[in-house]
Amino acid sequence: MNIRILDCTLRDGGYCNNWKFEKKNIVKIIHNLSEAGIDIIECGFLTDHTPHDNNITKHDKLEEFSQYFKRQGNQKFVCMINYGEYEAANLPEYHEGLIDGIRVAFHKDNMVKALEVCKEIGNKGYLVFVQPMLSLNYTDEEFLELISRCNEFTPYAFYIVDSFGVMKRKDLIRLFHLVDRNLKQDIDIGYHCHNNLQMAYSNAQTFVDGNLRRNLIIDSSIYGMGRGGGNLNTELFVDYLNENYGKNYVLKPLLITIDKVISRFYPDNPWGYSLPNYLSAVNNCHPSYAGFLEEKKMLTVDGMDEIFKMISPDKANTYDPQYIQNLYSRYMSRSSHGVSVGMENIESSVKDKKVLIIAPGKSAAREKEKIAEFANDEDVVSFSINFIYDYVDCDFIFISNIRRYQDMDKIHLDKRKIIITSNIEGDDQVFATIPYGELLNKSDIVGDNSMLMLINLLTKCGIGEIFVAGLDGYAYSGNQNFINEEMSFSASPKYFETMNKEIEIALSDFSKNIQIRYLTRPMFLDVGIQ
User: pTM of the full predicted structure?
Assistant: First the structure.
């Protein structure tokens, strides 16, 4: 038995940074993987769908990968093709200096055609790795058919692929036995795992332990870098193999790579275990759906789980951003309230009044005296958004965020002051319920931002001018954003930057129909205040 490590940082890890590693880092990562003695190094994707750029690990010509590596010993270099994204006919005949092998990833529906591509690639002299994504989606009969077809042309390796990180130990053992007993002995068996259920490390141990006769390949990535729950950690598993199988991988180059390169990518798009990634796994759904729902910051865990269960099987395996946006909107719009309840009460309350909106930014506390002085004018009607403002007895609390509503101290909450949107389960005692869908703006990113929804509501009430306090926008550090610390959440700097830009655009659009005056200056938004 021979156990080898295939590091897929530059390919699978690229989902975390859009494959923008930069050439100097690509070379450094490959060099350090070579110094560590990693057996097989995956350099990225071969695809017709991405323009040429030496700083990313997606290329449209196989020769472009050769600029990054120099061979050391018996190491092999590979890349991956997603079936349908590259014409195998365009591959040059294999010769020294090119990538050694090509991994072909495909879904079950494309099995027969994908295997034809595998044969074509093998006939050109490359090592072929057969990568049936979502291996658990195959019945035993279908998996045996796949194995039988591979035996006909003898690829270099056949993989068990846990694309969504859902495999338990018993699942892996069952599939391994199917492969081990039916695959030709001279074809290596590979295992590609994700870590949504925190099973990657233990499953990889199960995969290698007790096997006496097969050559095995284990996929991993440095620091577990990979979409959603991430991958098996290269640095962890080589240490396990050193200790238990007499391997001589060198750990230090991997740790240096984490410290000097990989750790810089983590803050912008973190990977690893999270509740949304767990839910995507147990519902056998693409992990990008989890990322979408998590970024909304509006859903409880029950709500997320309900949306995952709404995803149809034919949509679960491939991420469709418009599809999940539509499901999210449908879920949030669900309610028995098909029409506004109490809209006329809101209109009469704000008629001929100055309207003040108090958002939960830190400036709402810093300038509390100024806000209180304005709000206490008898001609002012005040609204707080998703929170109880301690410094002013606001006339109304507008709530559209389910999480915020559930976190409120309802013992002291006067329901007669509450205006909710229909995605929230209220009762007949609230002041008004407005259909969620009627208050959305056109942005997919901040379409249901509570501040913007309230401005939309006031516009519908005929208000021509509003005063805003506590609308700060988002700092890149989440703990700087809210008047109450418990409202804070973590996200990447890019997420907060995108949110700010989208809010600025929406406010600019609203200002064409309603005059917006800022009682406190927005700290992180550019709203044209001189």
Answer: 0.85
